[in-house]
Amino acid sequence: MSLQAWPLSQLLLALVIGLLCVFFLHWLRIRPHVHRVPTLLFWRIALASSRERTLFRRFRHPLAFVLSALLVASLLVALADPRTSPAIGRTRVFILDTSPSMALGADGAPSRLDLARQEIRALLGQTGLSDDTALIVALPFGARVVGFEESRAELEASLAAAAVSSGDSDLRSAFFLAAAMKGSRPDVSIVVFTDRDAVPPPEAKVESSVAVRRQGGGGGDAAIVGVFDHGMIRVRVAAYGETSPRRILLLDPASKTSVSSLEIATIPDGITDYMVSRPALCPQVLSVRLEPEDRAPMNDVGRVVLDDGLSSVPVAFAGGAATAFGSLLNSDPRIRALWAEEPGILNVRSVDSPGGSLVPGPVEVAVSSEFGSLEPWIFVAESLPAFDVEGASGARDVALVRDVRGGLPRSLARFHEETRTLEVPTGLLDGELLRRQPLVSSLALLLCRRLAGIPAKTVVVDSRLRLDFDPSPIMNSSGLLLGPQPVLWSPTNVARLEGRFGTREIAISPPLPRAPATVPSDPVPDSARPKLSPWEWLAILALLLVALDSWFVVRGRIP
Amino acid sequence: MSVLFPAEFLHALATLRISTKRVPAGGRHAEHLARQAGPGIEFRDHRAYVPGDDLRRVDWNLYLRFRKLFLRLADDVRDLPLYLVVDLSESSSFEDPPRSRAGMQSGLMLATIANAQHDPVSVFTFGEKLGPRLLNLSGRSAIPRLLPFLESQRSLGRTDFGSAFAEFTSLPLRRGLLVVISDFLDRDGCEGVVRALEGQRHRLLLLKLIRASDRAPLFAGDSRLVDSESGSALDLCITEEVLARYLEAVAAFDHGLRTFADQRGSGFVEVDSEKDVLPQLEPLFADGVYRA
After folding, report:
1. DSSP state, B118?
2. Model ipTM?
3. Chain A residue with the nearest C-alpha to that of B224
């Protein structure tokens, strides 16, 4: 039961009615039975002998009234679940656009991404303890998700780590993902932070209030969207905004001995290619940066790695991914080239077999659903004779980790290609099911677990969950069936959790990096326990106090 | 016969008597031996004649024998005044049936017995002070006069033994048997009752009007008790502990009254106003006689 949809006037009316009922019951209670007696002499003597109880007796009735009123008020408030920001619903999904244009801002001003971060943080500061907030960082293909079950700290960490991508973000997929995450939750607000128009596609069936917070509408911005090597380096720059920005294009050579730059007075709106001369005596260019005219060239916007050993298509990516790939290439000399022909497909070639598959042996490959993402996913192939990230041939164990920079915590999950299912240990899921239980059932579960010592996981879900993938196979441009890996994080995926108490569909979010490889030693982790709001705790406390008071009253009466 | 006093009630009293060792001098000829010898029938003694003695009481046989004048003394029998003081305060009148009804029945019973013994009966009512009264009833008309008098009485307000019996003491009454019929619920407690009665010159008989609810209150829990006389209220939660202390107070009050009666050599009888009066008073008349 929830009174969230009630307006304040109706809540106040309900409160007044409830308090009147309490007062009436209290009046009935305190109205004593009147008895006419021949004399009060003996009663006064009896009372005088028990004078020490008089004080409590005087205060007992008002105390009972106050407790009863407190009970009614707290229950009502608990049901109403008040919040400081009435404009925002109980559940919010933030969609953060990471298009290259978001990295830019008006000259001298914070970038649009920074402004979006500030807005999100401000909204997070207004949320109540019982609110649920999710963050979808829209990437050029797919998105990174911080689900409702994640902690606030993790959400803020992900928010801080969000950086621009090398291509336009897929807001459409983000809306699909938001709709899938929304599920059957009532009163979900979707807030989109972008610098462009964002309209949820009708087929996504968002059915929620969508607010678009436009970022950086006034100035002009530009970003690198592609770098190509044709002897000279061709840099594709996209400009946005109402005014044409003034930028400097910098090429950072690996030798650090020289820097080529190209001053662009005014970047016209749209996509423009600029040709930059390769720095002398430096065949490898580490980065290409696009900087404001008056800004020191330290703000990474775009980077490019060019491998002169192959006449390959250059790969563009952004941010820390360049460092990650650089270390990867350096760590395994057999790998000479990584490139992406299109988003989601990674091609790996080695020096020894330039045209073929990967060499046998353990190899760790960092990829992303969108090649070039700031935080790529890592897949580990254990001694596979032929590993192709795209192929996904046969059942195998895949390690799912989230952040290449986070120390590579891994949790094994088993993928069955025949059934297209992925078995995930329950340790990978937290108490989302429990957390969303109504108050009464949550209390019942809590009591059951406390009294009978039943672990939460046992009560709610099976020891292993089966995730059935709903979407149709994704075809790439070549007509090939994509493997399950990118599908896992496709925003249209819906997982069906078949638990002991029923089946529930949830949106598939990336496996939780916090979960260890084994089942936690604590059978009832804190995250699995129902979380009651302070108002609910207050209501329970008031209920206990009233019960205690009633016990005193009953005990004080003569049977 | 009266509704208040059915005929069966009166007939049952025919065999009962009130006796006393010696009655004070004065009064009328009746059945009680007087302290002084007098012109009776039963011989008691002789004494020498002194001038002024009644010559009719000279024993002429002794004169013929001894040639001296002796007076023949005989036991004198006199009446014993019976003073019925009936409590008609509000505390005795508000219940159903009222305690005063049992009190009136008790008084009438004693008055009937006394009247049969030719003892004069005086009836006083009291509350805060003495109320209407009937004095020196005797003869055949006594009871018929007493009945409508008692039936016509109404509540006389609060109980004040001190004031009422101070007024009673001031009346010029011959010493007799004072029967106090009351619930004795004076506002000063047992001490007030004792203080008011200990100065009385009469023989005392205390009839305490009680009800079963006095020692077993029918209410419990949160209650407002209203004093029937003063109207003051007392809010309290009647717990087992409070009830125990109440019963202790009632027992202490009764003990005080009994102790006073024992010290005075007075009779003390409790009369439950919700039961028949006659069976309750029968123990007072051992062998059919109450010895005051």
Report:
1. T
2. 0.84
3. A34
